[in-house]
Amino acid sequence: MRSASTCLTALVLGSALFLAGCERPPPAADQIGYRGTSMGSVTNPRTLEMREAANQPPEAQPAADPTGPRASTIYQNVKVLGDLSEGEFIRLMASMTEWLAPPDQSCAYCHNVENMADESKYQFRVARQMLIMTRSLNTDWKSHVGETGVTCYTCHRGNPQPQATFKLDPGPRGAGGFTASRQGQNFAARAVGSTSLPNDPFTQLLSYAGEIRVNTPTALAAGNPRTIQDAELTYSLMIHMSEGLGVNCTFCHNSQNFGAWNGPPQRATAFHGIRMVRDINTRHVQPLAAILPPERLGPEGDNAKVFCTTCHQAQPKPMGGAPMLRDYPELGAPRPAP
Asked: Do 104 and 174 lie in a common domain?
């Protein structure tokens, strides 16, 4: 019989080999701050390669001639893209069918093909609002999207509805008494890293202008007005942002003082991104709930809204920073009449 020490050694070695295979190759750590301050970025080359492969935009269609009569003078009921030439308009419509329409429906997903100007399909009205939103993002929110810009594909990735969204969700309920409602906590939610933190920080912080704060920015003479609930919502959202962008906390924060602004410049970009997402949800997405069919609504009667993962899909820059607006200038600011 083997001795106890031999068995223990074999068990330890076996466990080490098993755990070593959980993440391969070994993660790479890049120091981005002073030693001893935990200002490092940890990545796994294999995971990065997988993310890059999954975040490639489709090849852009050949550019269209921007001259000639405007689409609004040729087609009926063109209220958003009427400033485009006929060629640009058709190019963008063809691209949209590739970006989000089911393959078996193509133009018919949004249009009554017997009368393309007909607004009877809710998808037609949703698409119009989404085009207004996309142009707004590419012109009014350069503080976040820069010159890279976005297209429908940034969120949709070939699906009629973006796959990474959130809705109001009360979560599972207990048997009764004080356990009847979990207040959105203590059950795993992938959107917040499967932590026991609130599973929906998004409704308060990304649908409305709730304060994302853990402590007071002023002296504590009057005490800290921030509550434990404020801190939990904040940390829950931060975990989502970290996973949604595929980065560590140090990507945006100075780990010596997470509340300080003297850290990486990405914090300012994230600041504008949070406000951009709020604008998307309050101005463009939530009002559409009134025209959507019941199957598009959540258990509380609201429609799907966006958060960081919707666009980023575990990358610091959506699509690895592919120049979406350069390839599709039709989705930029409306052009003045010729």
From this structure: no
